[in-house]
Write a structure and sequence with these properties.
Blueprint: E1 2-5, H1 10-21, H2 24-27, E2 40-44, E3 49-55, E4 61-70, E5 80-86, H3 88-93, E6 97-98, E7 109-112, E8 118-125, E9 137-146, E10 150-151, E11 158-166, E12 171-180, E13 186-196, E14 201-205, E15 212-217, E16 223-227, E17 235-236, E18 261-263, E19 268-277, E20 280-290
Parallel strand pairs: 1-4, 2-10, 3-11, 6-9
Antiparallel strand pairs: 2-4, 4-8, 5-7, 5-9, 9-11, 12-13, 12-20, 13-14, 14-15, 15-16, 17-19, 18-19, 19-20
Length: about 290
């Protein structure tokens, strides 16, 4: 099982909360969590809404969301048992798609550890393969109770989690390489984005052009490169004989590794692909390393 901690604005929320506690309008209950001064509370630090991207995978995967202890800002001196329930009405109100039954392990609560200002609530997906990449899903949660004299109340009590699906290759990559072109040869050194198309399929651009291509990774981590709009007939050119003559690999490259492979250990694509232009072949060599 994978456990993924999602980045949050918990410390920012903590600073904002500190400001609220010193603010006259907070004392007047104009905003804030509307608790009496001196009350202790557990809230969702990212309430009312948080957006996350989850992996497209058949493997059970757990994500961690940040909770924040509030009020006096002193860390709890004992473990706090926090009870959580799903709140479908939050999803309906936001016009998001509910998660299909069986996708998610029921969210019932967590133990907020003593001595911490912030702690995590974990949500576990059995599988996400049945989810539609074109849809944005929603998960509504509400804090229903907390032990140790802590309250769950006010604007931090509910959170709507907006969920989008991404495969294991989705993200930004540093691309270095060379575009072999009969009239405009050039080096490549830039940031590229791989976007999810399917569990093993991602889309990006052809070299530094706007033409979209797909990268499909098979069970042996071989990569198939294909054109996504039918204009240029992109395909593999792994043989040196298919490269422009004379052929000069770009600085630091090793032409023998350009067999369109993906290295999962380093999250790196090694690519050589191209297409036939009107004045001869165009070939791109790239190393894409995930940032």
């Amino acid at each position: 099982m994978k456990i993924i901690t999602l980045s949050s604005l918990a410390m920012v929320s903590l600073l904002a909360l500190t400001s609220c506690l010193k603010d006259k309008e907070y004392d007047n209950s104009t905003y804030g969590i509307n608790l009496d001064k001196g009350d202790n509370a557990i809230i969702f630090s990212n309430a009312p809404k948080k957006s996350i991207g989850i992996n497209l995978t058949g493997t059970t995967t757990t994500y961690s969301l940040i909770l924040l202890s509030a009020s006096s800002l002193d860390a709890p001196t004992q473990d706090i048992q926090v009870t959580v329930a799903e709140k479908p009405s939050l999803v309906t109100a936001a016009n998001l798609t509910p998660l299909p039954p069986g996708t998610l392990v029921a969210v019932t609560g967590t133990t907020f550890k003593k001595g911490l200002i912030q702690d995590t609530l974990r949500i576990t997906f059995n599988s996400t393969l049945a989810l539609d990449l074109a849809k944005t899903y929603g998960l509504g949660l509400t804090l229903t109770s907390a032990s140790g004299g802590y309250k769950t109340a006010g604007t931090g009590n509910d959170i709507l989690i907006s969920i989008n699906i991404k495969n294991a290759y989705d993200g930004n990559y540093h691309a270095v390489g060379y575009f072999y072109h009969p009239s405009a040869p050039r080096a490549i050194d830039r940031t590229v984005t791989l976007a999810t198309v399917g569990e093993k399929v991602s889309s990006t651009n052809l070299g530094d052009l706007a033409n979209p291509i797909s990268l499909t990774v098979d069970a042996n981590n071989n990569v198939t490169v294909a054109d996504l709009n039918g204009n240029v007939g992109v395909g593999p050119t792994t043989s040196l004989s298919a490269l422009p003559s004379p052929y000069t690999p770009f600085a630091g490259s090793n032409p023998t590794i350009y067999t369109n492979k993906y290295d999962p250990a380093t999250k790196t694509f090694y690519l050589r692909y191209g297409y036939q232009g009107g004045s001869g072949p165009r070939t791109v060599e790239e190393i894409l390393t995930k940032e």
